[in-house]
Amino acid sequence: VDRVLRGRIDDRFSTVHLGGLNLDAREARGVRRIKILGCGTSYHAGMIGAQMIEEIARIPADAEPASEFRYRDPVVDPDTLYVAVSQSGETYDVLAAVQELKRKGARVLGVVNVVGSAIARETDGGLYVHAGPEVCVVSTKCFTNTVVAFALLALHLGRIRDLSVADGKRIIEGLRRLPSQIDEILRDEERIAELAASYAQAKSMMFIGRVRGYPVAREASLKLKEVSYIHAEAYPASELKHGPLALIEPAMPTVAIVPDDDLLEKNRAAMEEIKARAGRILAVGHREHPKADHSIVVPKNETELDPILLGIPLQLLAYHTALSLGRDIDKPRNLAKSVTV
Ligand code: F1P
């Protein structure tokens, strides 16, 4: 990890690039803002990454779909570090955004899975996420690995800046616990499959989450759409009352991302609003939720790292929903493995 993060690009790596961040401590301290760009699942991983960078490194950060960014003649700020995210490294919208940024003199890093891909070659440095090949069209393990890569980036930047030694150690220990906690989630697969079969008849589903839970809700809804073709909407839980509550009724189940964090009470209140309108709720968090009809419980980690584990049962939920509907999960209709036009 340290080698990947600390290394500067070495000439030996120049044909594949991404040999390291290519950012020394002085440069890293000078970063005033981080802007993350990606499409689809990679955009959602970037949203989580932006939150981790804000929480752990205390650098203002946000994510935007690269497909929007490239068309709006963006103002490029020299103190902003841009990060392009892509599983395939070939997605044209991301590549075009990188080229536009480079043309305007920005420094762009990549967080990419496929070694030597076009985006990896165009960026000034960055991280390979080493998820291995994604054999199916939709990105799953790469999503998880990309979020872990962002946690490492946040930790690295935090350590160069003001992150305390104790917090750094706490996050490292949290990262070390992930593999066994992921195994624990995977052991729950049979129950998740049963839940998926019971929700698979829905015509439409709502996904809600607040702050760390919101990008997880977005990715879960995208995964469900992509492989099961069930219509799914994701909203920040606090936006429910600004309109989407009108959609809640018994035929519109809600998947609520409700981790044990400082927002738990607020999230419980959102579940009450849904129950008051006879909505069915599947809660995903760190405990059984009496207000929900069903709960999926994932192991608790450090709060900043919660999104990593919360996403995994939702990938399984989408997979088993699609399976129970007889969909071709590896080759969903109308989707390309990488969108190169
Ligand atoms: C981005 C992406 C995928 C999505 C689909 C189309 O790909 O939007 O997230 O599942 O395959 O492309 P990438 O830039 O991460 O390779």
TrEMBL record:
Q: Reaction(s) catalyzed by this protein?
A: D-fructose 6-phosphate + L-glutamine = D-glucosamine 6-phosphate + L-glutamate
Query: Where's it found, cell-wise?
Result: Cytoplasm
Which Gene Ontology CC terms are recorded?
cytosol
Q: Which example biological process does GO assign this protein? A: carbohydrate metabolic process
Function of this protein?
Catalyzes the first step in hexosamine metabolism, converting fructose-6P into glucosamine-6P using glutamine as a nitrogen source.
Q: What is its EC number?
A: 2.6.1.16
Q: What class of enzyme is it?
A: transferase
Oligomer status and interactors: Homodimer.
Instruction: Tell me the GO molecular function terms.
Output: carbohydrate derivative binding; glutamine-fructose-6-phosphate transaminase (isomerizing) activity
Q: Which domain of life is it from?
A: Bacteria
Indicate the segments forming the SIS domain, all copies. Answer: 23-163, 195-332
Q: Which residues form the active site?
A: 337 (for fru-6p isomerization activity)
Instruction: State if Repeat is listed as a keyword.
Output: yes
Query: Keywords assigned by UniProt?
Result: Aminotransferase, Cytoplasm, Glutamine amidotransferase, Repeat, Transferase
Provide the protein name.
Glutamine--fructose-6-phosphate aminotransferase [isomerizing]
Q: Covered residues of the complete protein?
A: 268 to 608 of 609
